[in-house]
Predict the 3D structure of the following.
Amino acid sequence: MKKYHVDMEPADCEWCAKPLPIVRHWRTLFCNKDCGNAYFNKLAADAAAEDRSRLKCEACGNPIKGAKRAHQRYCGRRCWPSKKRKIAPD
Ligand SMILES: [Zn+2]
Ligand SMILES: [Zn+2]
């Protein structure tokens, strides 16, 4: 049997931890493209979450915890500018 000349170390998928084939492209980090997509989606989500964790409320200056949007400006409803007296239903 022909032996492949490869220097690859055994490795696991970066996402699901399944073992990767020994003979693979050197850049292969995932067992399939879905794992790659999931991994990079998470990276992007983590980066976005990190950005959001640095947001500060424009009204009270407190950090906005668990901001749902990257451009959230207030930590909560109590800090929203109250231009309108009308209370909007949720
Ligand atoms: Zn995988
Ligand atoms: Zn606030």
In short: The chain is about 25% helix and 0% strand. The mean pLDDT is 86. Residues 36 and 82 are 45 Å apart (CA to CA).
